[in-house]
Structures are given as structure tokens and as C-alpha cells.
Amino acid sequence: MYIEELSLVNYRNYDRLTIHFDHKVNVILGENAQGKTNLMEAIYVLGFTKSHRTPRDKELIQWDAEYGKIKGRVFKKNRSLPLEVIFSSKGKKAKFNHIEQKRLSDYIGSLNIVMFAPEDLNLVKGSPQERRRFIDMEIGQIEPVYIYHLNQYQKILKQRNALLKDLQRRRTKDTTMLQIYTEQLAEHGAAILFRRFRFLKKLREWAVPIHLQISRDQENLKIDYLSKVDVSESMDMEKMRDTYLTEFNRKEESEIERGTTLIGPHRDDLVFTVNDRNVQHFGSQGQQRTTALSLKLAEIELIYQEVGDYPVLLLDDVLSELDDYRQSHLLNAIQGKVQTFVTTTNIDGIAHETIREAEIFTIHEGKLVENNGLDR
Ligand SMILES: Nc1ncnc2c1ncn2[C@@H]1O[C@H](COP(=O)(O)OP(=O)(O)OP(=O)(O)O)[C@@H](O)[C@H]1O
Fold first, then answer.
1. DSSP state of 61
2. 3-class SS of residue 154
3. pLDDT for 316-348, tens place per residue?
4. Does the complex come out with an ipTM higher than 0.90?
5. Residue 320: CB within 6 Å of ligand 1?
6. 127-307 has which CATH code?
7. Is the CB–ligand 1 distance for residue 289 below 6 Å?
8. CA distance 131 to 125
9. CA-closest residue to ligand 1 atom 12
């Protein structure tokens, strides 16, 4: 799939902008703080209806404007489809093929995106929350029902934690309501966990050989799921739910004492091992970067396998962070098959032929000042 056209109205530092993109590689060139990342973010938001940089949608609307709009035309499966996401003080709306989607989970998946930004290089080293976010976003766009379970889970978790705090304060023994929340949490928790295991199994199939190749046959990558509950990939969803229920019952007293939910997918993590050493704690920066790159490349292939179309790839300021070898591995892997957007302040630092053939858009203060691409 690829984006044919993008229009912005009152989005961040863009008043109005319409761009027609090349279906291969597009370079967004500009000095610092001109709006390169804002443009990448807009594409990301068109796919996910939320930003990768902020949880606050209000920040996406241009200062002093009433609303902000992103419109795009995506070519996939031989059709050109209009997408639209609008933000205002009343909330956000997402339209697919001119029809407003009631639930955002019905919209997500319309445009598949893989983003690789400098902060992703910290995926291995960063907090468990970052790794959970990574799997959640990826599963969500392949299987939107996952988003429904995640949203439900978060809602119930909040209510359950409030109740646990209340029980802690009141020191009551009546846990009828807690039981109801526990059952609901176990149900959605198992739906999440089951899909995470399934996703990881497929991710490994791609990421392990890619990692071996990038490391010139030197590094064996392992990806494990870390849970506080004794669950395994071979369990079915029902068994996972029962395991959660048993564990919640066992932990009930300590949960009330602590006033919070102690187990569940919101506490889980991923562990990356290279040649039997934990990369997070013992990996070199190079190994951590190779791991992040292998995961991103694996994601691209996995989306192709699952949805039958390559996603759009956003490389925000990341190429210059990779050494020449990793840079050309990445660009060789996507060459000719994945529509790619690259931001940079200086194109000279990227020698690869893919970039030399790219369409180049120069951005200055939220305006497209030059489009000197293929017809240079
Ligand atoms: N809601 C908003 N309304 C108007 N302008 C905004 C808004 N949010 C951010 N900006 C402006 O957008 C600009 C930053 O753009 P962006 O983050 O895309 O920079 P960039 O071109 O990627 O630069 P760098 O290379 O430094 O990352 C800043 O000038 C900032 O003031």
C-alpha cells in the first residue's frame, strides 16, 4: 500500500498543505524545527488516529485554531481510498471512504504503518512500558479486535484499582464487586495475552534470521515473553483465563493490602537475548541497535504476511543514527517494495542509491518550498 496524497489543515505548524507522494521513497528535507517530524507524525496519525509523540490530541491542532484535519488517499489492493482524521474540542472523528467509523478500532488497519525513530533505538534498553507499547501497536494494526480488548482491559483495570484502594481504606470483607471486575479482567487479559503470544511467535520467525543476517551470522537473537503468571504459548485462551483467575484469587489479599492490581498483561515485558546474554543489561549499543532494526524489519514482513500488503515506512531522523552497514541493510531490504518517508536535515550523509532516486520535498516553516524530486 502507499499514500498517494496528503492534505493538512491547521495541523501543528501547517496552515494548509497538500502533497502528492512518490510511491517509492520520499525524502522530507529541512532545517531543524521546520515541521519534518510534524509531517511524519501526521502520516502516523492518519494510520493510528493518535500521535507517537503525545497522548494529548489537542497538541496536534494548530495553536489558536478550532480544529485540525488530516486527509489522505491510500492506494491498496487496486483501490484508491480516502481517509480522514479530524480533531476538535469535541474529540476526534475518523472517516474511511467518507464514512465515519463509530469505533476507532474499526478504522485502524486502514493504513498500515511502521515507524522507526531514534527513540525506537531505545526499545531494548527502555522501560517495559515502551516494549508493551511496541507489541500493542503492532498487534492492533494487524488485528483491530485487539484494540477493543485493550481498551476494555484498561477501563476495567482502572475501576478495579479504584475499588482495591477503597477496600484497602474501608477494610471491608465484601468483595462481591471485586469478583465481577476480576472475571472481566481475566477474560480480556487472556484475549490480550493469547494474541501477544501468537504475534511473538510470528515475529520471531522473521526477526531471528534478519538479526543473524545483519550481524553477519554472529548473533543469535531470542525473544521471550515475561509474565508474573505461569502462562505459556501452548495454552489456549480459556486456560489462560483460568490461570489468571486462580492467580487473582491467590493474590486477593495482597492486592487489597497494596490497593492495586498486581498481575496481568499491563505488567508484562519482553526479554531480548543475544547469544544467551540479555541485550538490555549486557548488550553493546550496537547489539541493541541491531535488535531494534531487526524488529522493525520483521514487522514490515509480518504485516505483509498478515494483511497481504506492505506497510508504509516512516524513518524519522533515524538513518543518520545508523552506521553505513546497518543503513544500507535497511535500505536494501525495503528497496522497491515499501513506500518510505525519510526525514533529514542533510541528504549528503546518505549515500545509498535509493535516496539518490528519491523524490525530495523541502520544508520551511510549515510550508513546502520545493519539490525537486524525480524531475530534477
Ligand atoms: N500545535 C502547534 N501549532 C503550531 N505550531 C506547532 C505546534 N506544535 C508544534 N509546532 C511547531 O512545529 C515546529 C517543530 O516542528 P517539527 O517537530 O516537525 O521539527 P523538525 O522539522 O522535525 O525539526 P527537528 O529536525 O529539530 O526535529 C516548532 O517550530 C513548533 O513550534
1. B
2. helix
3. 988 888 888 888 889 998 988 999 999 999 888
4. yes
5. no
6. 1.20.1050.90
7. no
8. 9
9. 13
Give the tens place of pLDDT for each residue, 164-223: 999 999 877 788 999 999 999 999 999 999 999 999 999 999 999 999 999 999 999 999
Fold of 1-112+309-376: Rossmann fold (3.40.50)
Is 56's C-beta closer than 6 angstroms to any atom of ligand 1? no
Amino acid at 56: R
Cα dihedral value 367, 370, 371, 376, nearest 10: -170
Q: Quickly state the pLDDT bin for 376 (edges 50, 70, 90).
A: very low
Ligand 1 in reach of 316 Cβ (< 6 A): no
Question: Comparing C-alpha atoms, which of 252, 263, 244, 259 is closest to residue 175?
Answer: 252
Distance between Cα 327 and ligand 1 center (Å):
26
Cα–Cα distance, 209 to 308 (Å, whole number):
21
Residue 31 annotated as binding? Answer: yes
Q: How many residues does the chain have?
A: 376
In the chain, residues under CATH classification 1.20.1050.90 are 127-307
For atom 18 of ligand 1, the residue with the nearest CA is 35
* CB-CB neighbours of 341 under 10 Å: 26
